[in-house]
């Protein structure tokens, strides 16, 4: 790896990139290959590939136990898990969500003819600001989908209070929060239900996949029907439904990845600490912190580029990309500025000042089991040199 000590060492100035292969945010963490191939062989022999097979059922038990929650309903991906949960809860008309989230949160509503109403975030937490949620309630509001962004829990108690006061549903998009806790209770136990994503780029993956966690037996049963076209036994459809089923091979990947989850979290935690130590020396740069008294998965390393920083966020992104460090601007520019929402609700941004500001200053840095301490230090040295000569 090259040493980066001055401007002449930067790839934006013509030097070779620091890394020969791209470093991605969301490079999949892979479990034990032999264990996975053993499961694959058994699935092959059994000729049972999907439709609530034995591996999916075992996976659901393990994920429910991991979160200390009664039911895990596995799905083909997090977006369909959101759609099914939203429908099972009977949400309609208007539902309040943050704009500062992955666009799937908004799409899962719009796709079903429900209006996503964007509320602002608290700039300190990047999560929904309960005060803004209150302001967005209308007679047509039926529910709230709050997000535990970056795995850090939303303002759960305040949101529950608002939901109770106004007779609204409350569920959580916990796509980032696998295994995380709030005041000692694991995600999955809050609101009516919480959804997870196991996409390849999540620190815990099933290739593609997702789930809904809930302690509500009836709700779990409804979602089990809905993910399988509403079938209850052969030839008998008793509910509206779709195809949201997880395959056996995805569940096998999940079980194998669950076996090594502690080492993945430890790698993420080490990288986060290395980034924190190195970045703390840089002016105008703030690394979002995790409350280490809670269970965390540390899967997103989120840096904010403040006004005191001598270069802009996009200059940092450009310099990193030139070095093959594919840092991301998640979730810029905010859902409200994306199609179709910017066309449907062109004035939504007027009540989202914090979303607009935060979206302009975030950089998400690569982490995971393919990164080590030395690589983290090289990534930070690129930013440090860029800042030093600009300041
Ligand atoms: N709610 C929230 C809050 C979410 O963040 C998400 C998903 C959802 C709901 C919906 O859950 P799913 O329906 O996806 O289960 C990624 C993911 O596609 C998405 O799952 C995730 N959030 C979002 C935060 O990130 P992209 O478009 O940034 O990913 P992409 O394809 O650019 O991948 C990032 C990099 O990772 C690639 O440039 C290369 C590397 N990569 C990717 C894949 C797929 C690999 O090395 N191997 C791979 O297999 O959205």
What does this structure look like?
By secondary structure, this protein is α/β, with parallel strands linked by helices. About 35% of the residues lie in helices and about 15% in strands. The protein is built from 13 helices and 14 strands. The protein has helices spanning about 35-45, 55-65, 80-90, 105-110, 130-135, 155-165, 215-225, 250-260, 260-280, 315-320, 340-345, 355-360, 375-390; strands spanning about 25, 70-75, 95-100, 115-120, 140-145, 170-175, 180, 185, 195, 210-215, 285, 300-305, 325, 360-365. The strands form four sheets. Strands 2-10-9-6-5-3-4 form a seven-stranded mixed beta sheet, sandwiched between helices. Strands 11-12-14 form a three-stranded antiparallel beta sheet. The chain has a two-stranded parallel ribbon with strand order 1-13. Helix 4 (about 105-110) links the parallel strand 3 and strand 4 (about 115-120). Helix 2 packs parallel to helix 8 and helix 9 (about 260-280) packs parallel to helix 13 (about 375-390). The protein starts with about 20 loop residues before the first strand and ends with a helix. Bound molecules: ligand T4K. The site of ligand T4K has 22 residues, from helix 3 and helix 4.
């Amino acid at each position: 790896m090259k040493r980066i000590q001055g401007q002449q060492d930067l790839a934006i100035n013509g030097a070779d990139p620091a890394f020969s292969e791209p470093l991605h945010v969301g490079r999949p963490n892979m479990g034990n290959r032999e264990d996975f191939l053993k499961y694959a062989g058994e699935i092959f022999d059994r000729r049972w590939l999907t439709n609530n097979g034995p591996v999916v059922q075992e996976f659901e038990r393990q994920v429910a136990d991991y979160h200390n929650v009664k039911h895990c309903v596995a799905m083909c991906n997090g977006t369909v898990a959101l759609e099914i949960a939203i429908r099972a809860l009977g949400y309609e008309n208007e539902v309040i969500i943050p704009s500062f989230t992955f666009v799937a949160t908004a799409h899962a509503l719009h796709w079903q003819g429900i209006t996503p109403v964007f509320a602002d975030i608290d700039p300190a937490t990047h999560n929904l600001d309960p005060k803004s949620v209150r302001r967005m309630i209308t007679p047509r509001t039926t529910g709230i989908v709050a997000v535990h962004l970056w795995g850090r829990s939303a303002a759960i108690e305040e949101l529950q209070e608002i939901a109770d006061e106004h007779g609204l549903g409350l569920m959580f998009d916990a796509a980032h929060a696998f295994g995380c806790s709030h005041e000692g209770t694991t995600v999955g136990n809050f609101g009516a239900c919480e959804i997870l994503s196991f996409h390849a780029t999540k620190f815990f993956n099933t290739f593609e996949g997702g789930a809904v966690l809930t302690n509500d037996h009836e709700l779990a049963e409804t979602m089990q029907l809905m993910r399988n076209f509403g079938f209850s036994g052969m030839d008998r459809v008793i509910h509206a439904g779709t195809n949201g089923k997880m395959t056996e091979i995805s569940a096998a990947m999940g079980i194998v990845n669950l076996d090594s989850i502690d080492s993945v979290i430890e790698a993420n935690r080490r990288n986060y600490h290395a980034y924190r130590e190195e970045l703390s020396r840089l002016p105008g740069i703030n690394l979002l912190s995790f409350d280490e008294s809670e269970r965390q998965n540390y899967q997103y390393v989120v840096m904010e580029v403040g006004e005191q920083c001598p270069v802009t966020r996009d200059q940092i992104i450009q310099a990193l990309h030139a070095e093959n460090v594919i840092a991301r601007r998640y979730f810029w520019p905010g859902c409200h500025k994306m199609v179709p929402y910017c066309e449907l609700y062109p004035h939504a941004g007027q009540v989202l000042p914090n979303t607009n500001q935060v979206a302009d200053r975030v950089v998400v840095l690569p982490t995971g089991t393919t990164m080590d301490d030395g690589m983290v230090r090289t990534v930070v040295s690129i930013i440090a040199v860029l800042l030093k000569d600009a300041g």
